[in-house]
Write a structure and sequence with these properties.
The chain has 212 residues and is α/β, with parallel strands linked by helices. The protein has two domains: 125 residues, Resolvase, N-terminal catalytic domain (Rossmann fold); 47 residues, Orthogonal Bundle (Arc Repressor Mutant, subunit A). The protein contains eight helices and five strands. A five-stranded mixed β-sheet has the order 2-1-3-4-5, with helices on both faces. The longest helix has 38 residues. The N and C termini lie far apart (50 Å).
Length: 212
């Protein structure tokens, strides 16, 4: 029986390291850790994400899957609930770091299963509602900033790195250093390194917009 962590970040201000540290501080010791970063696609289903697909194929009956919250297991209500039900039917135990929820796939009593499935549905719907509310708030904030472009041009999100760190990342990539090593050396998240690596020009422009 394996204890597995699945971690995913959907925005640049979240970090995989924080999710894993949270889990380990809660007392978990992991046999495997599966990681999807923000660049794996914000709107992708879990099965379409590289680590998500591998994790779904890896888990077996008796294994324990740990996630920050159930919203890590899908992009919306349908995706989350279908993935959880598949894993529970397989005999996998799902635990969340937030709220310490436990969903046991070995439950056989019809009443226990009904309560469990109703809770899964409620939490999945709540996760989708919170995600949609966050997107609406972000769009409203951007629109508000653009309204005052004449007074102060909207510059986008402030980069998580400075000029020195950016140059170090670009130099490190040229030297063949890995993402994890660069993140450790420069105290940056891996998602930030991936984003710089994917588009160095965009990274340069983001710093320039903020006068760096």
């Amino acid at each position: 029986m394996q204890t597995v962590l699945y971690a995913r970040v959907s925005t640049s201000d979240q970090t995989i390291e924080h999710q894993q540290r949270q889990a380990e501080e809660s007392g978990y010791v992991f046999d495997r850790v599966f990681v999807d970063n923000a660049e794996s696609g914000i709107n992708k289903r879990l099965v379409d994400r590289p680590a998500g697909k591998e994790m779904l194929g890896y888990l077996r009956s008796g294994d324990t899957l740990v996630v920050r919250w159930i919203d890590r297991l899908g992009r919306n209500y349908e995706d989350v609930t279908s993935n959880i039900r598949e894993l529970l039917a397989r005999g996998v135990i799902i635990k969340t770091i937030i709220n310490n929820m436990v969903f046991d796939g070995s439950a056989s009593d019809p009443m226990q299963k009904a309560v469990r499935d109703a809770l899964v549905g409620f939490m999945s719907a709540m996760a989708q509602a919170q995600g949609e509310a966050t997107k609406i708030a972000q769009k409203a904030g951007i629109a508000h900033a653009k309204m005052f472009a004449g007074e102060a041009k909207y510059k986008g999100r402030k980069p998580a790195y400075n000029r020195k760190q950016l140059n170090a990342v670009l130099n490190g990539i040229e030297q063949g250093l890995g993402v994890m090593e660069l993140a450790r050396q420069l105290d940056l998240s891996r998602s930030t390194i991936y984003r710089i690596k994917a588009s160095p020009d965009a990274a340069q422009k983001a710093l320039a917009a903020w006068g760096e």
